Amino acid sequence: MPVSDSTFAIQATGLECGYENKVVLKNLTFSVGRGEVFFIIGGSGCGKSTLLRNLIGIQTPMAGTVEFFGQPFTDRDPAARRELLKTFGVLYQGGALWSSLTLRQNVSLPLEEYTPLSRREIEEIATLKLAQVGLTGFEDYYPSEISGGMKKRAGLARALALDPAIVFLDEPSAGLDPITSRRLDDLVLQIRDMFGTTIVVVSHELASIFGIADRLIMLDRAEKGIIAEGKPRELAQSSRDPRVTEFLHRGDLPPPPK
Q1: pTM of the model
Q2: Most-buried pick from 14, 43, 88, 254 (CB within 10 A)?
């Protein structure tokens, strides 16, 4: 299914998310522009990961709709949803790599699932994707043999396997030291700049939020919804909501990126 000419990569309208009869988030309406690095932020338990699961189809919203590039996703039949799934990749927390598979085999999984390519072609693409994230020479290593930061990069390589138009990153910097986290942020920007990929990041890390986010939405547990939307520095400087300023001023504002 080709990507349309819609201005927005993602449009969520009136989303209500939760579990059984418990509503976690309600009346969420927001858009993500093409080629944007868009953050979903907020305190623990505010529903960041719940929203992500509803956006990527792991959970079905209790109400509302999600569109990708102007094409409905929420209410599509399984075959049409499968086609749309090919247009985005996901980096889960911790990388979520299969421990019994090498890095090349892990990156090959989406290609085996969604394409008719030969084994040789799949291995060549997997090797290329690992090279794009700086893991040349580690193709035959197992996840237990590499560092946490390398696992995140390998997970990102797998998310990029199908050349997706959108990549979702769930807490990509969690558990990483500041230097490794910054390198991962730089890699995210390189991917966006090189391929025009739309990036959606779930995170609470201030360095990443101020370093690479074009825009963000902030969720609040008590409100069960969005309490702020905009550019991170503008919100930090001008928001009158104490919940927003407290979250964004947990430390000194990092300097603007070079």
Answers
A1: 0.89
A2: 88
